[in-house]
Amino acid sequence: MNDLISMRDLSKDEVLYLIDLSEKIEKGECKPDMSRKLAALMFYEPSTRTHFSFATAMKKLGGQTITMRGTASTSVQKGESFADTLLTIAQYADLIVIRSAIEGAARYAAETVPIPVINAGDGANQHPTQALLDIFSIKKTQKKLEDLTIGVVGDLKFGRTVHSLVQALSDFNPRFYFASPSHLKMPPYILDDLTQKKIAFEEIREVEKYINTFDLMYVTRIQKERFADPEDYEKIKGSYIISESMLKEVKKNFKILHPLPRVDEISTDVDATPYAYYFQQARNGVYMRQAIIAALLGGDK
Amino acid sequence: MNDLISMRDLSKDEVLYLIDLSEKIEKGECKPDMSRKLAALMFYEPSTRTHFSFATAMKKLGGQTITMRGTASTSVQKGESFADTLLTIAQYADLIVIRSAIEGAARYAAETVPIPVINAGDGANQHPTQALLDIFSIKKTQKKLEDLTIGVVGDLKFGRTVHSLVQALSDFNPRFYFASPSHLKMPPYILDDLTQKKIAFEEIREVEKYINTFDLMYVTRIQKERFADPEDYEKIKGSYIISESMLKEVKKNFKILHPLPRVDEISTDVDATPYAYYFQQARNGVYMRQAIIAALLGGDK
Amino acid sequence: MNDLISMRDLSKDEVLYLIDLSEKIEKGECKPDMSRKLAALMFYEPSTRTHFSFATAMKKLGGQTITMRGTASTSVQKGESFADTLLTIAQYADLIVIRSAIEGAARYAAETVPIPVINAGDGANQHPTQALLDIFSIKKTQKKLEDLTIGVVGDLKFGRTVHSLVQALSDFNPRFYFASPSHLKMPPYILDDLTQKKIAFEEIREVEKYINTFDLMYVTRIQKERFADPEDYEKIKGSYIISESMLKEVKKNFKILHPLPRVDEISTDVDATPYAYYFQQARNGVYMRQAIIAALLGGDK
Questions:
Q1: C99 belongs to the catalytic site
Q2: What is the pLDDT of residue A72?
Q3: Which of A66, A85, A87 sits opposite C56 (nearest CB)?
């Protein structure tokens, strides 16, 4: 493992290794040391939470970060190519974490520089560290990854998070229920892929009818910025809101995950129930990113 | 002590404890270790000096910081609630330092998250770490806190710094002289409070007449941004300027404090006199903030 | 050595000492420890690369940084003088690194504060750490500094980098060839200085005719922002482009240096040749800045 660009690059064994390493880091059984190591966080797209999560991961391992944001006040203004910027940063840092609105930006970076690159989201394409922290969270809550019944709710068309997650879980014999507004359905290429792999899935309209069969439910935000017409957003945003009243007869092991930020797709009255797991999920992201950094930089002793 | 939100929450003993701890940290007799600890600095209002002071305090203890500024490029744009932002940050950091223009923001944060919160200024309300570093500075310059004669000069109406300080010194039998332009006087509720506590104070117009009786003088900036009409500011700003010529017969132990930044309320010719203490006061702020962090995070060995 | 403001302040011995220290740091023979030390990076002018290089240098020595950018969200807005800002920062940090568009800003800072100051570029005046890393790069590539034949190409009028470098190399008996568009020639005061020191130089129009005699060639960007009329820039920018085809018969020890960012003055087909040294040069900058920090803060054991 030289870079982490796409879930498709990872074998099942590698995924299991990273989950195992995350668990050990959380428990303090493994303490990677990144002293005097530097991660360059190149964030060409705003993302507080992903940026903070990576910065936290690196700093809590004893390492350091330098952050490049946007293109203002950078050499890009002076006409420098993206390749030159990357090659220069690679002289300073031990690791590049890159987030960009452009699909393939992270792959290009990995092919350009000799140091490890982590994709922290490239447009609508991949966000593999999110998928990995989601799987880690599923493992922690269910004690297993195999044979789970999973509801996936919200914007399934534009949500790269759920695309990566669904692909990643395919190795573990899941049963999926996809609930979304009709024009925000899971893209056909993902459904085709599931069909080919003989994975059970169903597209549903109402979550309530199925929720008591779920081991877990993954809810995503319906992102305003994906809509050309604000009115379309207003029409949609109230759909698929999860409230406490829906959780009366769910399974004991049932958990709700959400990549955050949430707007109103999960009522705050859910937060105090034992089914809310989204804030712990954010914390899991730090452990998983520490595991990924350790795996790439070789400090995983 | 779980949080530091308001001076009113602190007992006299807690104040004295923090002063003692600050002294020990300054002398190197106590070296708290914040390695692998992370403070989230949430600055919703610009403040170079307070931000730098906290960042310095944490970093010189071996700790690390992550900074969130304003609301641009944050999840707030995406419609996230303040509570959710706080709960997410609390998954990453060990401590939150928050500055906001909104009164009560820090208290709300403390009630929302399980980790310690420090109020770094909430609107016109409280700025307790400033009050504590001021008291620490008074103790260092006067070798005591009791029975001091203190001039307080400048904008006494809007200056939260002097409000907190006057309240905090009330436990130590002070005598106050308040000098301000007539429409920027100390608010009645503070004067009432002093009367009730039987603390001697006098409102004066001319500083020069009284300065030779002062043990110390606390000067504040008359803040342009508090005036609706710029002309009112221009009329006022020259008043109460302290110059070297006023210091001919002051007490030997006399010191001038100022929370900084200064504009022209203290002439630069004062800087070279033994009475100028404002830059050292800024340095004291680092020691006091280190003491507060250590007290909250339990690293005060 | 208390500050680093201008190459003119450094003796030849001091330059050689810094080169030697940089080499030892690169080889790991010297490991300065900046734990719990703080560098304030005051960048009043955008400069990704210089900022990152200093931040990297400090952090990879175990130290920490705080960064002040521009004037927005700083005390300058509140009417604070530059001297007061400096004096306050000096209470927090152990070292100030300053970059400003104003000539003499760094010198003024050094005269104002008691802590060491490093000039990271003051307008068209000096950029001594760049000159030092350039000399360090020359030493590494040529194994010596004496008696070198050096082509200097590009914008020689406004390029402070080449001015500092030419002055710095004057101690080592160089032979210079200066190639630039006619209205971007090396300023007369520099040529006069070389004449007085009896250093051989020639102003040339065509690089190709002389390139095979060069030990190294220093290429600079023709900076768009220096031109009042964009058309003038467009006319000029294609001139003096270095391409692989020009390098057929260069000396074996020949290397191309460039302070970066590059626009198109060196074709990317040069990058894969053994003559391209500009990215390694950027890395050398980290070692040199570490050496300078260690020399100023006394951690050079």
A1: yes
A2: 43
A3: A66
- Number of inter-chain CB pairs under 8 A, A vs C: 69
Searching chain A, which residue's CA lies closest to the CA of residue B113? A279
**Is C8 marked active-site?**
no
Sign of CA dihedral C54, C56, C62, C64: positive
Beta pairing partners, B199:
none
Assigned superfamily of A129-282: Aspartate/ornithine carbamoyltransferase (3.40.50.1370)
- The nearest alpha carbon in chain B to C70 belongs to B48
Active site residue C50: yes
Q: Which CATH architecture has domain C7-126+285-297?
A: 3-Layer(aba) Sandwich (3.40)
CA–chain centroid gap for B291, Å, is 15
A49 catalytic? Reply is yes
- Residues recorded for chain C: 301
Of B55, B223, B279, the CB nearest to C88: B279
Are the beta carbons of C294 and A102 closer than 8 angstroms? no
Catalytic residue among A37, A51, A127, A139: A127
The angle that helices A278-297 and B82-92 make with each other, rounded to 10 degrees, is 40
* CB neighbour list of residue B60: distance below 8 Å, 6 or more residues apart: B286, B290, C36, C38, C64
Q: How many CB atoms lie within 10 A of CB C171?
A: 17
Name the CA radius of gyration of chain C, rounded: 19
Which residues of C are less than 8 Å from A79 in CB distance? 224, 261, 263-264
For A282, the closest of B77, B80, B91 (CB atoms) is B91
Structure tokens at A158: 């534009």
Given an 8 Å threshold on Cβ–Cβ distance, is B261 in contact with C80?
Answer: yes
Cis amide prior to C274 (ω within 30 degrees): no
In this predicted structure, what is the pLDDT of residue C74?
47
Amino acid occupying residue C77: Q
Break chain A into its structural domains and give their ranges: 7-126+285-297, 129-282
Flag if B78 and A286 touch (Cβ within 8 Å).
no
CB C296 within 8 Å of CB C18: no
- Examine the pLDDT at B243 and tell me if it is beyond 90: yes
A276-290, pLDDT tens digit by residue?
Answer: 999 999 999 999 999
Residue-by-residue DSSP string for A157-170: TT-HHHHHHHHHHG
What long-range pairs does A55-59 form, CB within 8 A, spacing at least 24? A55/B66, A56/A286, A56/B38, A56/B66, A56/B92, A56/B93, A57/A286, A57/A287, A57/A289, A57/A290, A57/A293, A58/A34, A58/A293, A59/B36, A59/B38, A59/B64, A59/B66
Would the CB atoms of C91 and B224 count as touching at under 8 Å? no
3 state SS of B4: strand
Residue-wise pLDDT for C1-31, tens only, equals: 899 999 989 999 999 999 999 999 999 999 9
Would the pTM of this model clear 0.90, i.e. be above it? yes
Q: Return d(Cα C160, Cα C179) in angstroms, integer.
A: 16
Q: What is the DSSP letter of C158?
A: T
Contact between chains at B48 and C74 (C-beta distance less than 8 A): yes
Whether the domain at B7-126+285-297 and the domain at B129-282 fall into the same CATH topology: yes
Best B64, B89, B94, B115 member to test A by mutation, with max A CBs in 10 Å, is B64
Cβ-defined contact of B261 to C87 (cutoff 8 Å): no
Sign of CA dihedral A110, A116, A117, A118: positive
Give the position of tokens 């899935």.
A201
User: pLDDT tens-digit profile of C48-94?
Assistant: 889 999 999 999 999 999 999 876 444 455 678 999 999 999 999 99
Instruction: For strands B149-153 and B216-219, give the pairing.
Output: parallel
Q: Cα distance from A289 to chain B (closest Cα, Å)?
A: 12
The reply to whether ipTM tops 0.90 is yes
Chain CA centroid to CA B214, Å? 21
A88 vs C49: CB contact, 8 Å cut-off?
yes
